[in-house]
Amino acid sequence: MVNNSTISVVMITYGHERFIKEAINSVLSQNYDGIIELIISNDCSPDNTEEIIFSIIDNHDKNSNIKINYLRPSKNLGIKGNFLWALSHVKTPYVSFCEGDDYWTDTEKLKKQIEVFEKKSYLDLCATNTGFYFQNADSWNRKVIGSKNFPIHLDFKQFIWDRGYMAPCSWMIKTKSLNEILKEFIPALDISYYIYANFLVKSSVHFINEETCVYRILEESASRSKNIFNLITREMDLYETECYLLDKNRSIGIDLYDFSELKRRHIYVLCELILQIKDNLEFDRVIHQIKSNKPDILIEVHRELKRRTKLKFKIREILKKIKRRLKSFIIKEKPIETDL
């Protein structure tokens, strides 16, 4: 029976000493009849993450159906490198994910997803709804997927146009299918976006509209940052991923218009980010980064920035003229004569 299959849960972590205990315990609390292998890959954390992990392992019931496999690479691999390295240790038919700063809220998450795979053997990926927890504000958004900002995406092209999102901490994937997809993965691409979009091409994704996990939103993370340089790096990774995915899947009706629309959006986003820069050194750094990666894009970004600058100048000039006209009108206006 599929219900007794062994499932691996990949948990990558770096600097998560405040959150790792909650993440691990949320996996250890799973109610599932089969074997669960929790693979924790600590990417050389500089804090007390490792000590907390060791403490949990030492106190974990060795007779439990949940086994903990702790990994620590000899050097820092980065998020993508650590994820791929941890994934290389997965030998089970199914794999789920929970990063060290996220956690699961449904003790039957894995059980529910395995039951879906049992009923629909053609599926490759099963996702669930997700809650967002904003760490600094101590506030929640519940069942985020399906909202206006995060629609449910089960169509490849719509996912690309919307720059869709489906939280990896909600996924369960057939390991064999995931390994096949990652054979063509290249480091410049956004890995979670790449994985989900590829499964949408195959129309092999299922969504359970139940909240089973929480994606913790920090002030600084891979997808969110106050650093413009980091945001531009992520934007360029996403654009590279989108172009790669469209080019790879031309057979499903991708045309030149699709590529031009993607490029237009990319230039728009880059300009919006660049206009937020106030420091000259940061500006030079960002321009050098774009030039090194996409010199053709830099030309169009420069053209768009000039257009916006001229537009703003024209608007200011028009407003000044209107102001002068109003002032002149007020001064020249004659007082109204009366018989009083």
Automatic annotation (TrEMBL):
> What species is given as this protein's source?
Sphingobacterium tenebrionis
Report what the protein is called. Answer: Glycosyltransferase
Say if the entry is tagged with keyword Isomerase: no
GO terms, molecular function? glycosyltransferase activity
Recite the UniProt keywords alphabetically. Answer: Glycosyltransferase, Transferase
Q: Per its UniProt record, what PANTHER family does this chain match?
A: GLYCOSYLTRANSFERASE, UDP-GLCNAC:BETAGAL BETA-1,3-N-ACETYLGLUCOSAMINYLTRANSFERASE-LIKE PROTEIN 1
Q: Where is the Glycosyltransferase 2-like domain?
A: 8-181
**UniProt EC number:** 2.4.-.-
For this protein, the record's InterPro entries field holds: Glyco_trans_2-like, Nucleotide-diphossugar_trans
Determine if Amino-acid biosynthesis is one of this entry's keywords. Answer: no
